[in-house]
Amino acid sequence: MWHRLQIALIFLAPLALLGGLSLLGLTLPVPVLGRGYVIRVTLPDANRPVGLPPIAGPSDPSRPLVVIDAGHGGHDPGAGGVGFREKTLALGLARALRDELVRQGGVRVALTRGDDRFLALDERVEIARQLGADLFLSIHADSAGEKDQITGASVYTLSGKASSEAAARVASRENSADSVNGVQLAGRSDAVTNILVDLAQRRTSAQSANFAGLILREGDGVLKFHPDPRRSADFVVLRAPDVPSVLYESGFISNPADAARLTSPEGQQRFATVMARAIRIYFAREDGA
Question: What is the pTM of this model?
């Protein structure tokens, strides 16, 4: 009985308070409801074409094109630690690599972002595909939080399981008017499209693995790698079915030594020299294949 009375008081007490105030001619301030409480956010047009970045290097379109993707950006800072942010570190490495490739010549280069701006993950992949990239490299930095002793770079490719899932996703999207590895998909059945995309993904995965191996080989003794540097995962930016793609975790931004090395001009130049050599060897092998 007492519990029921307590419940009744919970509901009746506010009404009794309002009634008493009304009899005394008093009122409680009530916020004005309506349009003032509506927050409007302008969403981008879903059909808006992706803005394509400029291509640096030779003007000859037959020269191979590498698209370098600096991870995160804008309101997405990525990982943080010891006074650095991943988006800034990644952009510094991307610019250093671009400049080195342009200096050496023979390879065309584009950055998905050349400044501090936000790009959706799908936009990064789409930029590479629309530009007709021959290679895609996404640059990031890891964080281990309180475990600041963890150090070293890792190289990721798309995992085998993720490869088949990615092929199914691409085939199920509105890609019937697109092409994969130069093969037009328009007018083909879903079953044929699935097969073509899967075959393209298998070939692309093999090329991605070759490039990942070159990074580790050329960087041995020059770059600081994690004890287990060769990895695979289902990263969105690695899902392009016809662009060999690698994600490079340059080190741990939570590790002071890694952060200092990756943000210094000397460390960025070492990275650029090694990566440019791996890229040129990769393209030389593909050209001779």
Answer: 0.74
